Amino acid sequence: MDQIKIGKFISQKRKEKNITQRKLAEQLGITDRAVSKWENGLCLPDASNMNQLCEILGITINDLYSGQIVNMNQKETKLEENLLEMAKLKEQADKKMLNLEIVIGYISSTTFLVLVFVASFIKMPTWLSVLLIIFGLTTFFIGMHSALKIEQTAGYYKCAKCNHKYVPTYASVSLAMHINRTRYMKCPKCGKRSWNKKVITK
Ligand SMILES: [Zn+2]
Questions:
Q1: Which of 25, 40, 60, 136 could be cross-linked to 115 through a Cys-Cys bond (beta carbons 3.0 to 4.6 Å apart)?
Q2: What tens digit of pLDDT does each residue of 22-35 get?
């Protein structure tokens, strides 16, 4: 996806409609800085204001992602290209999140261990050591919760029985037995329990 091309296209369409960046931002309920960022190719519009933006500019979402008005003959190829590109972007984002999960898990458990160590082996008033342990536990639980949330939502779990790929609920992920990222869960499609591997591609 060519962000620069898309940005120029948004800018061109906006000018054709005689709308200022500010006016467009107002209509979408966002800042004019955000509009300027799109037009300079620094980022893409969020999914949440995509529809309204296209409506205002009088283009389709397919046009927007292509950075040009897509004519009838190339319509389907362009749509396919854009969907593929979007799937790729999601995969990249998911991979980043899963790496972040490792970092979060590592930092929160290290913090916990260090604080417990300090509280037990260094002489200090009781209230201080209790405070340190409470702080350590809080960090640990917040860290584990964020890590688990990432694991639930990034990518998919693949059922070992029917190969169905799905995003499970937070509860089923947190309660499932697991070896690293492979979790023993019930597949929503075939209803059988098996060791579900984490996969990135749908
Ligand atoms: Zn299944």
A1: 136
A2: 999 999 999 999 99
